[in-house]
Amino acid sequence: MRIHVVDSHTGGEPTRLVLSGGPDLGRGSMLDRRERWRTELDAVRAAIVNEPRGSDAIVGALLCEPADPSCQFGVIFFNNVGYLGMCGHGTIGVVATLAYLDRIRPGNLRIDTPAGVVGAELHGNGEVTVRNVPSSRYRADVAVDVPGYGQTTGDIAWGGNWFFQVQQPSPIELSLGNLDELTAYTGRLRQALEAQSITGSNRAEIDHIELFAAPRNPSAHSRNFVLCPGRSYDRSPCGTGTSAKMACLYADGKLKANELWIQESITGSTFEGHIEILNGEIIPFIKGSAFVTAEADLVIDERDPFCWGIPG
Ligand code: PYC
Hints:
The chain is an alpha+beta fold. Helices cover 20% and strands 37% of the residues.
């Protein structure tokens, strides 16, 4: 079995786009297809992104026919432990890869995802702007008791994935030298949310945790650390996290429609964001760049005891 992929990174965060040889998920809704993948063919997910072919940081993107006929492409995002609703850095990576492959020209696209239809504009200079799904704050000022760390307060927000965004400046400096401590703290916080039954709407699991601090880059507004599902952190500023953050800022009257928000990641990469209000909904826009790093055939040889990956 061979799976053809192109790898890219967006602000340091990798995306592996599956172009052919991936699972055949039929022609249902994007959500139905993702469910079919999860329940019937999950080994293929692990084979694509987990070690020994991948790493915990890689976000996979399966390119498929869109369910919505107004879209040019459909994409299902996944990682080392499961599936994502949407992925901002991943969408930028997908669009930059399609441009690298000469499959698209500068202009606008519509992409179907399990979280809904997103827009993307490929600019002439290679940058990509993603028009994300409507984003919102679900609950403000939620107190959580984090064993070993004490009480913390944050917002629960949707940006295409569920986030708990800690309000007070991070108690641990947001620097690459502190990754172990940051991962331990946010991991403990996520466990505390689960133990205390604190969820998104419809009891959805909150699987992304985000910390903030003052930026180092003088043109940015904030620096973040994002714990992704599993134990990996986002090397990019996180498109869905920045969407959720802008929705919270708007709800607090701290960000207006069309006002620029520059989010810096823990690696120093930045996304430019703004929101528009359409029919009462907050629509986030995220601009960034991605670069292709590799093009390969993944080989799955059933004689290899690790051909389906090491579980994440
Ligand atoms: O950019 O939305 C994002 C994202 C989610 C998980 C990793 N990156």
